[in-house]
Amino acid sequence: MGLKTILATLIATVSLNLTGYAQIGENLGNERCTDIDIVVNRAENTLSLQCEGEEVLESKIITGKRNWRTPLGEYTISRIKVNPRWTIPKRIEEEMSSNKPETWNYRVEHEIYKLDNSGTYYQKGSPYNPLGQLAMPLDQLPGILIHDTNNKISFEREANRRYLSHGCIRTEKVRDIVYYLMDNIEYKPEISKTYLNAILKGNGRRYRSGTIKLAEPIDVRIIHEHNN
């Protein structure tokens, strides 16, 4: 089921226009930012959301552990995935099934992890998914995402103890970042933060998935620089 159908089900009285990008209407009258960047500092485990070079939000992050370092470089994001499915890479499958076989076997037996037609395990989108409920894949490295997490207590660790991921960038304030992008960039389908919240809340234990496409990509720089 597509995001259009999901929204129509959740809010039947609202008519959606999916032919164009949504116009900005939720930034409370503030002038929209036309130059947005994201700077990920792997050394300090922080993410800086910037408008025209000025920081508007800083978030704690979790980056790649030893042998899974988050790659440095310049990238872009152009999609926001809502309740994303987690496709488990073979290397992570091997690590999990070897290091924690009882946990792995339990999750397979109880269909928390399911097999797709290609023989790859996946976990459907929900708040209990390791990707959390919002994720933004790097266009050039689709296996690396800036994403939510189902283990938010990890953000309470000191920065030098937040090297825990398999390369992705778990972000404490990912929802605030998504809201800021929705306030300042055109996107489709034409939904509001209110509609998005309805999807994230779910219907009982059922959580629908979808993708928000940004009209223009956001630059992402991943650096490794220690502050003084």
Quick structural overview:
The chain is α+β, with helices and mostly antiparallel strands and 228 residues long. The chain has helices at 3-10, 90-99, 101-109, 174-184, 193-201; strands spanning 36-41, 46-51, 54-64, 73-82, 86-87, 114-115, 121-123, 134-137, 145-147, 163-165, 169-171, 187-188, 210-223. The chain folds into two domains: 3-85 and 128-223, L,D-transpeptidase catalytic domain-like (Beta Barrel), CATH 2.40.440; 88-123, no CATH class.
Keywords:
globular, L,D-transpeptidase catalytic domain-like, 2 domains, alpha+beta, eight-stranded mixed beta barrel, 13 strands, 5 helices, 228 residues, three-stranded antiparallel sheet, 21% helix
Secondary-structure blueprint:
Layout (H helix, E strand, L loop, with lengths): L2 H8 L25 E6 L4 E6 L2 E11 L8 E10 L3 E2 L2 H10 L1 H9 L4 E2 L5 E3 L10 E4 L7 E3 L15 E3 L3 E3 L2 H11 L2 E2 L4 H9 L8 E14 L5
Parallel strand pairs: 1-13, 3-10, 9-11
Antiparallel strand pairs: 1-2, 2-3, 3-11, 4-8, 4-13, 5-7, 6-7, 8-9, 12-13
Helix pairs in contact: 2-3
What does this structure look like?
- The protein is of the alpha+beta class.
- It has two domains: 179 residues, L,D-transpeptidase catalytic domain-like (Beta Barrel), CATH 2.40.440; 36 residues, no CATH class.
- It has five helices and 13 strands.
- The chain has an eight-stranded mixed β-barrel. Strands 5-7-6 form a three-stranded antiparallel beta sheet, with no helix packed on it.
- Strand 2 and strand 3 form a beta hairpin.
- 31% of the residues are buried.
- About 11% of the residues have low confidence.
